[in-house]
Amino acid sequence: MTASPVSVVALLRAALEAEQAASYGYGVVGSHLPQSSAQQGAATTDWITHLRAADYLTALIQARGGTPAPAAVAYQLPVPVQTAAQARVLAAALEERVAQAYLALVAVPEPALRSYGAGQVRAAALRAEAWRGSTEPFPGLPAASLRG
């Protein structure tokens, strides 16, 4: 089965939305971490990574004749955040959502896009592991899909 150009653009838009939400979420993460800490430095690095990925996805969408959606003013966070520990949980959850969005790109017919998607799933899984302190099986797949 071959993905149509429209469906590839839709998948790229979904990844863009995940990146935009992660960028927003890392603002919340960073605001709850101790100033000048290694974790705040990691949050800043991850925030910049997501901004750059959003720019790249925007270019990919435009190159395919699509119109990328602008970032929302705010996003619903998957977990409440009032402490540094909750901020770390949020960071891991954001990365899981990013991995899930990129996982869909692994199935497209374009080898370069498949490779990019796989690389981004891996990168998001490694960032999630750094925030969580442990790995998760099958990054990007919702836990419900792994039940038999």
CATH topological fold name:
Ferritin
Rg, rounded, reads: 15 Å
Number of helices: 4
Shape type: globular
Strand content: under 5%
What is the CATH class name? Mainly Alpha
**How many separate domains make up the residues?**
1
The CATH homology group name: Ferritin, core subunit, four-helix bundle
Distance between the termini: 25 Å
Structure explained in plain terms:
This protein has 4 helices and no strands. The chain has a single domain, classed as Ferritin (Up-down Bundle), CATH 1.20.1260. It starts with a helix and ends in a 16-residue tail after the last helix. α1 runs antiparallel to α2 and α3 runs antiparallel to α4. By secondary structure, the chain is mainly alpha-helical. The longest helix has 27 residues. It is globular, with a radius of gyration of 15 Å. It is 64% helix and 0% strand. The mean pLDDT is 91.
